[in-house]
Specification:
Radius of gyration: 15 Å
Strand order of the largest sheet: 3-2-1-4-5-7-6
Number of strands: 7
Distance between the termini: 35 Å
CATH topology: Rossmann fold
Shape: globular
Structural class: alpha/beta
Oligomer: single chain
Helix content: 10-25%
Bound molecules: S-adenosylmethionine
Order of helices and strands: HHEHEHEEHEHEE
Length: 188
């Protein structure tokens, strides 16, 4: 297994875990640039119906037979249309992936009331390692700017974290539409 795939089988992000309880059983979820689907697996086990999409065929093949997960090998950056209509999902989860030209398109995939859960690296991460390419690093507050039109922010954070490895990250949970809705219950 390549080092990048080894990284992908890490535990789900605490940020995703925190907001997963907003998704009722049967919710249709897209795990975009899923890798081996650490979040797809978790959400499917919680009763969601998950599409895991990634260009890495080996990573998607690892999801074969996982109940509740449909794998989709897809280059999200090819410019070709994506195979989902606007408003197809109750939630879109994106972690450790950024392709700015596709941001509006992934937001369009959400139904009204649908939830965007996004977490990735931000400026300053080069001090800790990769990614260091500015194309893959959010600007300060960028996820707030990108969801300012059409979303209600439930939670937003940005800054340095120590785990799972030292990094500068930014994360948001935002609901499509004007209503914030229910907050997740604190975990026991
Ligand atoms: C750092 S991994 C993150 C995987 C997963 N979201 C996670 O956090 O465990 C980045 C993923 O983006 C995928 N990726 C990069 N460019 C892509 C593209 N153009 N189309 C589809 N997937 C892509 C890679 O194959 C890889 O699985």
């Amino acid at each position: 297994m390549s080092p990048s795939l080894a990284h992908d089988i890490a535990a789900p992000s605490p940020w995703v875990l925190r907001f997963a309880s907003l998704l009722p059983p049967g919710a249709e979820v897209l795990d975009l640039a899923s890798g081996r689907g650490r979040h797809a697996r978790y959400l499917a086990a919680a009763g969601c119906r998950v599409v895991a999409a990634d260009r890495n065929a080996e990573a998607i093949a690892s999801l074969t037979g996982v109940a509740g997960v449909a794998g989709c090998v897809l280059d999200l950056e090819s410019g070709a249309p994506w195979p989902w209509a606007a408003g197809s999902f109750d939630a879109v989860v994106v972690t450790n992936y950024l392709h700015r030209p596709a941001f509006a398109r992934l937001c369009d995939l959400l139904r009204p009331g649908g939830v965007l859960i996004y977490e990735t690296f931000m400026q300053g991460n080069a001090a800790f390692g990769k990614p260091s390419n500015p194309d893959f690093l959010l600007a300060p507050g960028e996820l707030l700017v990108r969801t300012a039109d059409g979303f209600t922010v439930i939670a937003f954070e940005q800054g340095e974290v120590a785990r799972p490895a030292p990094a500068m990250i930014q994360r948001i949970c935002a609901r499509k539409g004007e209503t914030a809705g229910r907050l997740p219950e604190p975990s026991a």
